[in-house]
Amino acid sequence: MSQSKNIEEIFEYLPHRYPFLLVDRITELKVGESIRGYKNVTINEPFFTGHFPDHPIMPGVLIVEAMAQVAGVLAMETKQTRPKDGTIYYLAGTDKTRFKRPVVPGDRLDIEAKVLVERKTLMKFACRAFVGEELACESVMLCVARRILGASD
Predict the structure, then answer these.
(1) Which of 11, 15, 26, 122 sits CB 3.0–4.6 Å from 5 for a disulfide?
(2) pLDDT grade for 148, boundaries at 50, 70 and 90
(3) Do residues 71 and 88 touch, judged by C-beta distance below 8 A?
């Protein structure tokens, strides 16, 4: 079943908050299979003041982080866990990460992730980020579930 998620629902899946929440909406979610979402990139992002003042470009590591956050929502929904229950997914590794075009203010970064491997506490995803029809970034990401320190069982 395909599901969309607004920002309030995304808060239930991810522990991130401003200025580090890099997902604005989930547009499609197929549990155990795939997810699509997006980040609206605006000049108001705090990282643009220094990257770069006269030629603003979204840092590549934040594009990777945005893809990991979208994949994290899929992991949480697939495993039926939430941060409020004491579980979060950490980005444990990236492979084959390639940047194909810069992402600039005014772009909408469309992100997709597909499950490649699902184990008890580990998930591997094929992730891609687009601006329009152009591929901006692709990566294979490994996420691992961990209990939040201090969480009660």
Answers:
(1) 26
(2) confident
(3) no
